[in-house]
Every structure is written in structure tokens, then in C-alpha cells.
Design goal:
This protein has helices at residues 4-13, 43-52, 79-92, 111-119, 128-137, 142-149, 168-181, 277-285, 354-359, 400-413, 440-451, 469-485, and strands at residues 21-23, 40-42, 69-72, 95-98, 123-126, 158-161, 187-190, 202-203, 234-235, 241-244, 257-261, 293-301, 307-312, 316-319, 322-325, 330-332, 350-352, 364-374, 378-387, 422-425. It is an alpha/beta fold and 498 residues long. The chain folds into 3 domains: 4-52, no CATH class; 69-323, Rossmann fold, CATH 3.40.50.12780; 350-493, ANL, C-terminal domain (GMP Synthetase, Chain A, domain 3). The strands form 7 sheets. It has a 5-stranded parallel β-sheet, sandwiched between helices. The protein has a 4-stranded antiparallel β-sheet with strand order 10-11-12-13. It has a 3-stranded mixed β-sheet with strand order 18-19-20. β6, α7 and β7 form a beta-alpha-beta unit. The two termini are 32 Å apart.
């Protein structure tokens, strides 16, 4: 993605223009000449010039043993990128490791853990997608364990996750691993926010922890709320988070509804859209007559104030009058694991979902559920799964035993109403945005088209998609599935308007 046009426009609109802009040209993009008159400079030419003149840039030394030493893997152009890679750490006086690349295949799945070891990273911030990719390539966590057993992860105090919902199985697995190999009391924390909020809306903060002079720790004197797998934590300061029905009336604790924000937002939040206040009103305020900010997410707020974000409101599936969400929680009791830390709660009832139930199977690395048309029930849940193995089967149709085990997991944790209408397996077929959000709507459209035999029909996808080639992989798997199973598939009887 070429960022220079956006940077140039931002500088043009800025009242305080920078004297210099360093351009890092990428081989994947067309090489345009830099505009020296406007202060642009080519990074490679600067480096070569400095080497030729034996000039070294003066760096500000930051010790690797600093208490705040952070690695973030978000794209620098997204809100988490510039908030937590650039000005956030600088304001806090923190050193940041900017990692560019995938968590697997460089050359293996140890990339994150090698960086933590080499740079004594204390906080890792990434997307659940990255951890799923690591799980898929290294289902036994061999790479992490090898580095952990050498003491290479002892600096790590927390793994923060954002960008999409983190299923409890991922939280629980990595919590047990960091509990064994990372710093004492290390946590795996899911948090929820958006570009519009400018900072986390919900989460579990490790502060108050260290004073500004870094001499006093408050961890022992201040009990933090425990982490609940499946929940994105509690409302952060400045945000009034509510759960309401379609009329804007608050629902009872534990009941699914629309997640909204009270007005005004925290100081970090948007108050309008640039040169488009009408769009801001229609997008965020109109639905609830200006009383609430509509986040577009569905979720639950429980009696203790824990907030679970399940999915986008428009991803809800209506099955025989029951509103299910692809990532929507229903009450379920998650199994205990060998973890009993002070700030991590696994013994209470948390929340489950269709995707969550599927990924609780040890063979599943990732799952995505969409609604498909059904003439009797309106819609049925339909799953796309990726297995936890490097040599993934080529067939789009899972073996009968795995299908039966997945269906049992779903019936046990959600109920018979959520029985899947079909399962497609494949590697590299679940499309995501560059910030890690799953594009369920794309898969849903592919399945709807396949119901009518329209396998090659174009589907719409956003410009923010990470890799458009993934859609072709998904299309091939969907076609293979419906060509073999379409004549007996329940959804083939009629097409329901979604």
C-alpha cells in the first residue's frame, strides 16, 4: 500500500509542517522520484551518503532492561500502529521494536519469540490472527517452549490482543504458556477499540503498576480485575459502554444486544468526520436518535461489567427465530486448565460462540462461520476451518470423524439449534483486512453464489483486504465442496434474502 499520497495530503493540511520527510521506497511499488523542494529525502540514498562520509546518526540510548519495552506488529498506518508504534511509546519514554513481516515462515514460527528473547521485550501487542497462524504451523508450541525453557521469555509481562475477537481457546493456551515461561504474573489480555475511539474502549490494564520515576511498583497494593477468556475486559476510563436492544433500551446483564457508547466519548475519540458531519451523524448517531454512539458491534455486558464483543451486528444469523452470531456468546462453562493465577479467572461461567466451540477442538487452528440460506429455518451456520497442521489436506471436505466431533462440540457448548449446515476445510482461504478483521461477508457471498452454481461470480471486498488472492483460494474450496455435496445440501432448496 502506498502511503505517500496520504502523507503529502496530511502535510499540506498541517499547520506545523515537518522540515524533512524520509521516503522508504519498496520494491513492490513503482519508484517515484522524491520531491526535494518539499523536504522529501530517499532513505537508501541517505544511508549510502552517510556511509561514504563516515557519518553516523546520533541515537538516543535506551537500555534493553527498561521496564517499558514494547513490540507491536500492527500495520503502522492503522490506529494501533501509529498509536502504539509511534507516538504512544514515545510519550511514555518506551523503546519500541517495529517488526515487519509474518509471524510464520521467517523461517519458522519462532519469529515473535526470538524477538522477545533478543530484545528483552516486556509487552507484545498483536492480533489473534497471528497467534492462530503460529498455532497452525506449530500446534505443539515447540518453538515457544524451546526458547522459554532457555529463559528467553522471562522479560515478557503481557501479551495484548486486538483487531478481532480472541476465542477463549487461544487465550487459555497462551496464558498457560506465558504463565510457565514468561515473567511472574504475566497475562494474556484481549482488548477492544476502533479507529474512531482512538484508544482502547475496553480491556484490563496492567496499571497502576509503575510510577513515573520507575522506583515504586503498585502491583502488590492494587488488585487488578481478573481476565475472563472470551471477554474484552471492562470499560476503560472515559468510555461509557452500554448494551441496548434495537430500540436503544438497555438490556439485562448477560443478554445479547447492540454495544453502544454514551456521549461524550473519551478525549481520544472522534467528534466528527473530516468535511462530512452528515455522514458522521448517519453512521454513528442516527440509529439511536443521538442518544448513543452506534459501534456496529453486537455483544454482552455481564453483571460484573465485563464486556464481550461477539461480532458485527450485521453478521447475526437468524436460525428458526433464534439470533445467533458467528462469534456470538451463549452461556457455557469452559473447561478448567492448569492455571490458577491471581489475576486470571477460568473457574466462572464465561461466554461461548459457534466459532469458539469449533476452535476448542484441538485440531482446529482457525474457524469462520457465516449464515447460508435454508428454506425451512431461514439460515444455517456454515463453517470454514483451517487445521492445526503444516501439511494441510487438499480436500475441501473434512473427514467424517472430524465433522462429527465438531458438530458434537457445537451442540454441547451452544445447543442443537446451532448445528452446522456444512463445513469447508482449507489453508489460506479466510480473508482478512490488514488489521486482522475477518471478512465474513465475502465468504457469505461466495457461499450464496455457490448455492445457485455461480462459482465464478465476482464478490465485493474492501480495499483494506490483506491479500485478494485468498478469495480465489476460498472460491476454489467452495466450488469443490458444493460440486460434491451441493445436490444433498440443505441450503440448496431455496435462496433466502440475507
Amino acid at each position: 500500500m502506498s502511503y505517500r499520497p496520504f502523507i503529502r495530503e496530511a502535510i499540506q493540511l498541517s499547520s506545523h509542517k515537518p522540515r524533512r520527510v524520509i521516503i522508504w521506497q519498496r520494491n513492490e511499488l513503482r519508484w517515484d522520484d522524491v520531491d526535494k523542494n518539499s523536504g522529501e529525502r530517499n532513505w537508501y540514498k541517505l544511508v549510502r551518503s552517510c556511509r561514504a562520509r563516515n557519518v553516523r546518526a546520533a541515537c538516543v540510548p535506551v537500555g534493553a532492561n527498561e521496564e517499558v519495552y514494547i513490540i507491536y506488529t500492527s500495520d503502522i498506518g492503522w490506529v494501533v500502529g501509529h498509536s502504539y508504534i509511534l507516538y504512544g511509546p514515545l510519550l511514555a519514554g518506551a523503546a519500541t521494536v517495529l517488526y515487519e513481516g509474518k509471524p510464520v515462515g521467517t523461517p519458522d514460527s519462532s519469529a515473535f519469540w526470538r524477538i522477545v528473547q533478543e530484545y528483552n521485550v516486556s509487552t507484545l501487542f498483536t492480533a489473534p490472527t497471528a497467534l492462530r497462524a503460529i498455532k497452525r504451523d506449530d500446534s505443539e508450541n515447540t518453538q515457544l517452549r524451546q526458547i522459554g525453557e532457555r529463559g528467553g521469555l522471562r522479560s515478557l509481562r503481557a501479551i495484548f490482543l486486538a483487531g478481532e475477537r480472541s476465542e477463549p481457546s487461544i487465550i487459555m493456551m497462551y496464558q498457560e504458556l506465558v504463565g510457565r515461561y514468561a515473567a511472574p504474573g504475566a497475562l494474556v489480555v484481549d482488548n477492544w477499540w476502533s479507529s474512531e475511539s482512538g484508544s482502547p474502549i475496553t480491556g484490563i490494564s496492567l496499571a497502576p503498576h509503575t510510577s513515573h520515576d520507575k522506583k515504586h511498583s503498585y502491583m502488590k497494593d492494587s488488585r487488578l480485575p481478573p481476565v475472563k477468556p472470551g471477554s474484552a475486559g471492562k470499560a476503560m476510563p472515559g468510555f461509557d459502554v452500554r448494551c441496548v436492544d434495537d430500540d436503544g433500551v438497555e438490556v439485562k446483564p448477560g443478554k445479547m444486544g447492540n454495544i453502544v457508547l454514551g456521549i461524550p466519548l473519551a478525549p481520544t475519540g472522534f467528534i466528527t468526520l473530516w468535511n462530512d458531519e452528515e455522514r458522521f451523524y448517519k453512521s454513528y448517531l442516527k440509529r439511536f436518535d443521538g442518544k448513543w454512539i452506534d459501534t456496529g458491534d453486537a455483544g454482552i455486558v455481564d453483571a460484573e461489567g465485563y464486556i464481550s464483543i461477539m461480532s458485527r451486528s450485521d453478521d447475526l444469523i437468524n436460525t428458526a427465530g433464534h439470533r445467533l452470531s458467528t462469534g456470538t456468546p451463549h452461556p457455557s462453562l469452559w473447561p478448567r486448565c492448569q492455571v490458577d493465577w491471581q489475576y486470571f479467572s477460568l473457574t466462572e461461567k464465561t461466554t461461548g460462540s459457534i466459532e469458539q466451540a469449533i476452535t476448542s477442538h484441538s485440531s482446529i487452528a482457525e474457524a469462520c462461520v457465516v449464515g447460508i440460506p435454508d428454506s425451512l429455518k431461514g439460515q444455517l451456520p456454515f463453517a470454514f476451518i483451517t487445521l492445526s497442521m503444516p501439511d494441510h489436506p487438499l480436500s475441501a471436505i473434512p473427514n467424517a470423524q472430524l465433522v462429527d466431533e465438531i458438530q458434537q462440540q457445537v451442540r454441547k457448548q451452544i445447543g442443537g439449534i446451532a448445528t452446522l449446515g456444512g463445513i469447508i476445510q482449507g489453508k489460506g482461504m479466510i480473508p482478512k483486512t490488514r488489521s486482522g478483521k475477518t471478512l465474513r461477508r465475502v465468504l457469505r457471498e461466495l457461499v450464496e453464489n455457490a448455492v445457485h452454481g455461480e462459482y465464478t461470480k465476482d464478490v465485493q471486498y474492501p480495499a483494506t483486504i490483506e491479500d485478494p488472492a485468498v478469495i480465489d483460494v476460498a472460491r476454489e474450496k467452495v466450488a469443490q465442496y458444493f460440486q460434491e455435496r451441493g445436490d444433498t445440501h440443505k441450503a440448496i432448496e431455496a435462496r433466502a434474502k440475507l
